[in-house]
Amino acid sequence: xxxxxxxxxxxxxxxxxxxxxxxxxxxxxxxxxxxxxxxxxxxxxxxxxxxxxxxxxxxxxxxxxxxxxxxxxxxxxxxxxxxxxxxxxxxxxxxxxxxxxxxxxxxxxxxxxxxxxxxxxxxxxxxxxxxxxxxxxxxxxxxxxxxxxxxxxxxxxxxxxxxxxxxxxxxxxxxxxxxxxxxxxxxxxxxxxxxxxxxxxxxxxxxxxxxxxxxxxxxxxxxxxxxxxxxxxxxxxxxxxxxxxxxxxxxxxxxxxxxx
Length: 260
Prior knowledge:
Blueprint: E1 14-15, H1 18-26, E2 36-40, H2 48-51, E3 58-63, H3 66-75, E4 83-85, E5 101-106, H4 112-121, E6 128-134, H5 135-142, H6 152-160, E7 161-169, E8 174-175, E9 182-189, H7 199-211, H8 217-220, H9 228-231, H10 245-257
Parallel strand pairs: 2-3, 2-5, 3-4, 5-6
Antiparallel strand pairs: 1-8, 6-9, 7-9
């Protein structure tokens, strides 16, 4: 497509529908008035076309595919120094950003979850994310407690972001068509600057709980060497998928204090 071949090992599926591309870009609302915007995996530039029309943002485009970089720099010579070859998962984003920045992209499906874990690392710098990913992963991230798809990313992202499932995207609007339906998610940073608990411990408790999601938390969290008082908590009769973010915060504080 336009001189750029989709590469399976990079998880590339190039969107070719201009209306959907415009709809994705228009989903940005500049939450908290950030001025810098990063597009991850611009590929053949279908989102880029609409992004460069948005004068309110200072843009940066990041891709690991040299073929895409060469194509985009040729197509958009005015942005040549803003189209860079970098691996989003490996770089220190602090090298490029000292201030808040938004993220948008048709995320490579084989690393979409890892992208969101990195967003969490920089959560106090990233007010907004608009990303297209596999529908299954999007539903999981947006799921609420009590839902079987509710999981680690659901809890961790919803602790810091308002998560909205925007719309589904069929396979036939991509080249090559993926084997799955896609979906667009919108993340908007909420007002929780820090959780009311030890956040590193919170992450550990959530991950451990869902790694043994079929067990009650009393059994799933055995590695924490829980005290008798904590083991008697009603919360531990539940499975991880039944707890809200606030429930996990409460549980984390009990574990941190070593008492009920």
